[in-house]
Amino acid sequence: MSEGVVGRGVFGSMVLPSRPEVAACPEQDESINKASWEPPAGIYGHSVSGSHVDCDDSPEPDEATKRVKLSKIAMDKMRQHWLEQQEAQPTPRMRQSLRHVTSEVTSDEAASLQDEIIPVTLKKDSNEQVELRPFSRPELALTQSFRLLNSDDWEKKIEGLMFLRCLARYHSDVLNSRLHEVCLAVIQEKRAKLSKIAMDKMRQHWLEQREAQPTPRMRQSLRHVTSEVTSDEAASLQDEIIPVTLKKDSNEQVELRPFSRPELALTQSFRLLNSDDWEKKIKGLMFLRCLARYHSDVLNSRLHEVCLAVIQEVGNQRSGVSRIAMVTLGELYSGLQKGMDQELEATAKVLLHKTGKINAFIRQLADAALGSMVQNCTPTRSMNALLAGGLGHLNAAVRRCTAQHLTTLVEKIGTGRLLSGTKNLTDRILPAVSKLAQDSSPETRYFGRQMLLFLSSHRDFDKMVEKYIPPKDLATVRDTVVTLKTKFIKKDPNEQVELRPFSRPELALTQSFRLLNSDDWEKKIEGLMFLRCLARYHSDVLNSRLHEVCLALVQEVRNQRSGVSRIAMVTLGELYSGLQKGMDQELEATAKVLLHKTGKINAFIRQLADAALGSMVQNCTPTRSMNALLAGGLGHLNAAVRRCTAQHLTTLVEKIGTGRLLSGTKNLTDRILPAVSKLAQDSSPETRYFGRQMLLFLSSHRDFDKMVEKYIPPKDLATVRDTVVTLKTKFIKKDPNEQVELRPFSRPELALTQSFRLLNSDDWEKKIEGLMFLRRLARYHSDVLNSRLHEVCLAVIQEVRNQRSGVSRIAMVTLGELYSGLQKGMDQELEATAKVLLHKTGKINAFIRQLADAALGSMVQNCTPTRSMNALLAGGLGHLNPGVRRCTAQHLTSLVEKIGTGRLLSGTKNLTDRILPAVSKLAQDSSPETRYFGRQMLLFLSSHRDFDKMLEKYIPPKDLATVRDTVVTLKTKFIKKDPNEQVELRPFSRPELALTQSFRLLNSDDWEKKIEGLMFLRCLARYHSDVLNSRLHEVCLALVQEVRNQRSRVSRIAMVTLGELYSGLQKGMDQELEATAKVLLHKTGKINAFIRHHADAALGSMVQNCTPTRSMNALLAGGLGHLNAAVRKYTAQHLTTLVEKIGTGQLLSDAKDLTDRILPAVSKLAQDSSPETRYFGRQMLLLLSSHRDFDKMVEKYIPPKDLATVRDTVVTLKTKYSRGDITAHYVLPQNPRGVVQKHFGLIVTEVVSCGMPFYVREAVQKGSKG
């Protein structure tokens, strides 16, 4: 049966071919008519053939004549309609169907109903089957529908139901008079399909009327319907009440809504869960999720049965069922909270087991559900459940997850309660923490030691340890605590000791070998530290026994104890930077073991191995380093190793240059070209990206084609050439905004049609082309898009979900263009588009996250604020991914400030009742960043006079006390990103006493007292700087110690205090710059953005206020050779400011400790492996090159090995960044919200503050005046 099937009566009767260009022929009609068939599910209607007309019912001659006239009238009307719609002439079969239609009605009815006969094409989705139009005489149509429903012909029954559908949509008032009869008529249809159709029409009507719940009369009719149908039909009809569309990602499956009869839904969920059909099981779980969210009181009566059923489904072999079951458990924890305490042990056990699975999605969902348990249930019960299920588990991943969540609970409960000696608390937690702190897994051990360090701050810790720790473990625990308190467990081995030169380095070398040959791992670490000191200060001593040193280090890098292995890798990095080309003979062996480590699971190991390889690339001979990388990583089976190899090779290829690489030299050209070709076709997308970058770089050489023919195998030659052509055509870049220059169309309507054709293609390149068409239309022809905006948005949403990241990224950029081009015209599409963008903000790929965030920023900036707010709440508020919730909270904060408290707390429906519970939830989120933004909003809203009244009205009673306490805390402490604004600083009446008091507070173990002491120092630095001079060294030592504090708030305020000292004492701080700058620079390499921000601000204060030359030396000492790329970037950034401040005259005056330090440093930074550091280094090099003595000083102070490179770099910079076209080479920071033109002045200020050369700033500022 063809796809287009048409009903009779008000819809006409015909069969359309599946392809419009092929007309239906009589032979096809006959073959169709002969076949006996049932309509497929979802196709409602039929094609009437001659076989359907009973010969016994043929009309009399007179009546036949009358019917013929009516047929002619009907045919004339249909023909006129088809001509208006530019349709083809009706086929003989259509005429035959029409005759059948008119034969079924009386002459009076025919005159009325003939106006309703319209050609319609039915589709599988009942919502889209027909184009429904209103009746001219709805009362007559209602009567006709009863006559058709009373027929024995099932096709006529369907036609009657279609009549009712039209009446429900356009003439609902007509139905009210006979609604009960309508429902009874529907009940009498025993076909499951017919019942589904009837229910679907009623549901469609309710949705069209935007009613979340049916009216009481409809609900009564619905209960009557469901009570009359069979059990199978009831299951189907019950599912129609809540429309569900299952997707792969459980976070996006449904929009959960409350039930009208939750008790019935609970019974139905058990029936579905007992089914063998996995899809029914999922539906049953979705029922339980709805009940947990909206009807938690209903679950209490049968909670144990519910939990047993969900636990059984968590263990289901079908991962789709198992994943949704875990999400359901998370909903139960958050909905029932302490009501789940009795079931924690059983549920936590099965979730912990799942955290050890290979499947990352399974692990993530299990971890999220456990996080929900930790967040919402009673902490002590949760702790006991974790200990029972995960403490002694054989799987290391399960123990790690147990330890991670236990750490959260230990901090939540506090040392006072945990070490109070309470039964089933102190006697359980202390042995457990002791065991985790000695676990074989480094990550588990890390969390265990964190807890041990936290507990050790309690005054009764030693007493409790003696009481509850077994005697055999007592000594180990005590030693561990002493070690932790001494060393302040840190991830970076660089900070464990302060390296100093030896007085007798030869003896130290001998001693290091003795220590490395020991079986004690601590002595091995001591030996490695000896080698690090020698590499940094006495590299000449190592040359005599370098091969032995490298063999010993390679052996220790392979050590099974991660602490030893990590410090061995750091030591190799020191050797590379200390000996430089002296390490060339040992590169192959050392690089091989480091590359192997970059494929490990442990992130700390990978990071240190990558840093050591970066040091090799930076300091050793480039060609030797390249050969070592190719030998160790090119053919490695681990994709991570190949990615790291390709990344460092890209740096080397740019460093060596195309001229030398493609010179035809043996062991150079013949090795690099096949290697780059292989990497450009690698199975890993990241490796392939770096390989293609190198291929594109090499292709700029004039002899590239000749060398490719000579060195690339014939089988790969065509592939390489095609890849190069593609790369040159598309200029593959990270940012899709830079791929093409967008221009307006001459015929935009045609371009819109073309874009849909391209997007429907299976070729991803054509899809990208179609998206680029839409971007141009959004930018220049937004009015053209309005007519088909919904189709455009659906197409773009589909491409945002595309598995090919290139397509997905450009689709997100296109959405951003739509928001900025159409602005409020996009309001109707916000919910669907924001939902898919929010989901993308939780992805691992940073580029994907960045583009999704930018598109959402464009939405917040340009669309109606309230609509944007509702879209964010619908898509991101309850998401399981903390990254999505953080992004939601961040953009909500902007919207809350934009809308204002007056409107938000005005009591408006769908505004106040949505924002207050949402902000309350975000302020209590498990993610600290989300919680931060939630509290910001809560603090902002609390300034309104009706805040307390609205809280009582809209916040659930169970959360009211928590919200009020949070607001009081926020108003007391003014929690903000900038600790400068926490308190109003005032001068002291007795500053000497305040200084003494500050030292006493800083020596306390209470972190709040430490903060108070730091605030004392800030006041003294601001108002009484002369008092600090007498004890300045002690003050700085205390501050440096607090900057290293493990509690981030103490560390951040300590950094702000250092900034105050720099601005208060200014040149008086010169003697302390080296020590303070070193610790601040180290903090700029941390993951936490707030920490980096404060460290950078403090360094900026130093650069601004202290002696420039002293500041420069402090930066060079602390950051120039640092292994962390972020630290080197910040060093280079602040050095750029200082170089401009001091000026080329003083810097190149040949002064001691100035010219001899700055020139080699700038040379090194200009060749750094990090592109950002390299950018600032080249800026400084370009600025210095303007001095007349630059060439003379370069020859004097730059090592001969780097001299040619520095000169080439300067020539390139002077050629490329000429003053006439400087703005063409600097890319202004993009404004993600599309307001570049409105705020150009702010952007220019931002660009100028980045540290551009003076003539760049002039060019940009001149451009800003336009």
Give your account of this protein's structure:
- With 1266 residues, this protein is mainly alpha-helical.
- Among the domains are: 390-487; 505-717, Leucine-rich Repeat Variant (Alpha Horseshoe), CATH 1.25.10.10; 740-838 and 848-862, Leucine-rich Repeat Variant (Alpha Horseshoe), CATH 1.25.10; 864-974, Leucine-rich Repeat Variant; 999-1219, Alpha Horseshoe (Leucine-rich Repeat Variant), CATH 1.25.10.10.
- It has 69 helices and two strands.
- A two-stranded antiparallel ribbon has the order 1-2.
- α68 packs antiparallel against α69 (1254-1264).
- The longest helix is centred in the N-terminal third of the chain and has 24 residues, at 61-84.
- The radius of gyration is 37 Å and the shape is globular.
- The N terminus and C terminus are likely disordered.
Q: Order of strands across the biggest sheet? A: 1-2
Proportion in β-strands: under 5%
Report the structural category: mainly alpha
Helix amount, in percent?
55-70%
Globally, the shape reads globular
Domain TOG: 252-494, 495-737, 738-980, 981-1219
GO biological process, one term: microtubule cytoskeleton organization
Pfam family, one: CLASP_N
GO molecular function: microtubule binding
Features:
1266 residues; mainly alpha; Leucine-rich Repeat Variant; two-stranded antiparallel ribbon; 69 helices; 2 strands; disordered N terminus; disordered C terminus; ARM-type_fold; microtubule binding; CLASP_N_dom
